[in-house]
Amino acid sequence: MASQDNVSRSKAPNANDSHIALTKGALVTGITGHDGSYLTEFLLQKGYQVHGLIRRSSNYNTQRINHIYIDPHNANKARMKLHYADLSGASSLRRWLDVIKPDEVYNLAAQSHVDVSFEIPDYTADVVATGALHLLEAVRSHMADNGRNIKYYQACSSEMFGSTPPPQSETTPFHPRSPYDASKCTAHWYTVNYREAYGLRSSSWETYRRHETGVRRGLHGGNSHTVEEFLEVPTEVDNLKGDASKVKEVLKWKPKVGFEQLVKMMMMVDEDLEMAKREKVLVDAGYMEAQQQP
């Protein structure tokens, strides 16, 4: 496993090779999440030294980055390291900034379940909104005390647009419909404020599309359910549709995967059923516990 202050993980092809010349250092919160794992792979391939902040918990939740694991004691190869911290603890954020001295900070950490945010609105606001403020202030004070420049990236959400009619673009006004949405909006405006007030090189970014790999599976299991259980939450957002005109014009991007193909890629029903069958055989034979994944 790993020590309390240095919990590294890494193993993607060429991602941690010692012959790659290190270019920059990055600090990533939310590194164990879906987007965090992809960002980490990308940064490692670019030659970055990546430091991730994770919360201490009884369950070691690093499944999404286990494939890029390298023992942290192998200093010549391990270019990703994990450290215990929490966005609610401002002092620990500043301490790690002083130790790591990153060139870039990516804030992806969040309580990101919209429905759950209605059950724990105060915690959601503390992590998503106030947590972003803690990190921004830690970055600002670290820069002021050490004469350094850091780029700061704040992860936003399409949920921030809420009930505004589609398509949504960079100029579309926000209309949050949940505690999570409102907290993300607050984090965004904190980011804008620190850019305008202190000259921090900060920006907010968001994507409507996500790759199917790493997305939670959860609609199978042998019991009957209604789709409503998974889809409906209070003040449900009606229609979120990003305006892709700018990326098409500037980057010459165009979609390669249609809606039906995307659904198949995300659900992979046949593969999931086969996996469940294999798992049942292994559990029944006593080779694995019911909660383990093959």
Observed structural traits:
294 residues, globular, Rossmann fold, alpha/beta, 6-stranded parallel β-sheet, 6 strands, disordered N terminus
Structural description of this entry:
Its cofactor is NADP(+). Keywords: Lyase. Belongs to the NAD(P)-dependent epimerase/dehydratase family. GDP-mannose 4,6-dehydratase subfamily. Residues 27-211, 223-266 form the NAD(P)-binding domain. Its EC number is 4.2.1.47. With 294 residues, the chain is an alpha/beta fold. It has a single domain (25-284), classed as Rossmann fold. Helices cover 38% and strands 10% of the residues. The chain has a six-stranded parallel sheet with strand order 3-2-1-4-5-6, sandwiched between helices. β5, α5 (179-198) and β6 form a beta-alpha-beta unit. The longest helix has 26 residues, at 121-146. Residues 1-15 and 210-225 have low confidence and may be disordered.
Q: Helices and strands: which structural class?
A: alpha/beta
User: What separation lies between the terminal Cα atoms?
Assistant: 20 Å
Q: Give the SSE order as H and E letters.
A: EHEEHEHHEHEHHHH
Relative helix content: 25-40%
DSSP helical segment count: 9
- State the strand order across the main sheet: 3-2-1-4-5-6
Sheet with most strands: 6 strands, parallel
What fraction strand? 5-15%
Family: Belongs to the NAD(P)-dependent epimerase/dehydratase family. GDP-mannose 4,6-dehydratase subfamily.
InterPro entries: GDP_Man_deHydtase, NAD(P)-bd_dom, NAD(P)-bd_dom_sf
Pfam family, one: GDP_Man_Dehyd
Enzyme class: lyase
